[in-house]
Fold this sequence. Notes:
alpha+beta
Amino acid sequence: xxxxxxxxxxxxxxxxxxxxxxxxxxxxxxxxxxxxxxxxxxxxxxxxxxxxxxxxxxxxxxxxxxxxxxxxxxxxxxxxxxxxxxxxxxxxxxxxxxxxxxxxxxxxxxxxxxxxxxxxxxxxxxxxxxxxxxxxxxxxxxxxxxxxxxxxxxxxxxxxxxxxxxxxxxxxxxxxxxxxxxxxxxxxxxxxxxx
Length: 195
């Protein structure tokens, strides 16, 4: 069977092309999600690269549909790929945990143990005494890397299970106190000093 007859076969038209459209939409929508996230985090130089490949892949997928306007399977593959791409893009963004967040914690009981713990872990912490509806409270602010958010919230719940907290994205932060990063650059720097 030559390539021309393979491309004209029913299997190719009803299975292979819809699968490729579905897969292309997953990739381009995931790239679009990442592009938007990078823009919102102020990483403007990476976002255009995502945008280029996002649109390029989209053009390939929509081109197949425009050549076969009567094939409903292509439409279903396109829509299913879009929906799945949103899910995959959000999943990837959660894995990457790009950027920083402000963690605001309001505690009714003594917060000194939590504040001391966070500071001992290298987090910059600002604690303010305030008055809430039910009495005196301590408000704790800390800007942390998103990748550390779940760990820090776990410690907050351990120290005070009934603490109220909220999280907001930070577009830019500087001059703060952050725990040392544990990445390969830091590893190699320590390794070279030891030689």
